[in-house]
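Q: How do we represent a protein-ligand complex in a form that can be generated token by token?
A: Start from the inputs.
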Amino acid sequence: MKHTIYSPFDMHIHFRQEEMLRLIAPLSAKTFAGGVIMPNLIPPIDNAEHLLQYQSEIYEAVNGYDFTPFMTLFFRSYSERELLEIKDKIIGIKLYPAGATTNSDAGVKEMSKAEGTFALMEEMGIRLLVHGETHGFVMDREKEFISIYDYLAKKFPRLHIVMEHITTKEAVDFLDRYENVTATVTLQHLLITLDDVIGGYMNPHLFCKPIAKRYEDREALLEAALKAHPKLCFGSDSAPHPIHKKECCGCAAGVFTAPIALQVLTDLFEKNNSLENLQNFVSDNAIKNYSLTKSNKNVTLVKEPFKVPSQYGNVVPMYADGELNWSILSVQ
Ligand code: DOR
Ligand code: ZN
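Then emit the structure tokens for the protein with zinc ion bound:
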């Protein structure tokens, strides 16, 4: 059995820097036509010069693959002049609440102080991508943030707001409330719950932010993905960390899924009799929601076992040493 995906896009990826960038970027670029590259580097990407420098490093790292990096800027208060200079080079600006996750200390402390920049972004048609977690109890952080999404969507009705990596039923329900709100969802949040992270032996390789939630949340996310809800796009949030930063006290947040994402998604959609909706979920919805151009890159998968390596370099992937039901047959 074979299945072809046309122009797959990953709408949320971490490529990192230097050696890690050179190891990781080709693994996405091999099968994806393009992806949204996160700006939480050290230091964060918050000016045009840094952004263009990083983009050229990415092109160098994916050399030989047809892959478009859709760049993002790290949210801070920007002047009109800065935004005018950069708006055509980015797919959006990523807002992190200060301290919410990896390298986000320079994030937003008070939403009200960011309103001037939101208004400029709305005027110029610059998208706002959001890590939507408060600093509350870990299982409630996303649910609590919904009221902030509500205020943003209402106050800036022409601002396209992307709820990144949603993990709750409440976020799925919120999707239909405002026209200017869409979302991404990761691979792991369609598959695991908190039980898989800490319910048995603790698995640091499944620890990410936002943390996986309850069974009813996973059900709601899966249902929306399987029917390819038109406002929901695949964004892996593939977030590599070296093994010594995962298997330790103070484990870094992030699940590394880039090299297995399409194989696992195909299996998941096939098992749930929804293979016909996978194209919308990993490509067509993104093309519509972000006004992308379809690429000519097509990936054919075959239902033959794929043994997941224990590591890619010094990074442990999800399902390390496991066997997947689908493999990549060819990329054209
Ligand atoms: O688990 C995560 N890892 N969540 C994020 O928001 C950031 C990411 C990272 O950069 O490692
Ligand atoms: Zn992320």
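The radius of gyration is 18 Å. The longest helix spans residues 141-155.
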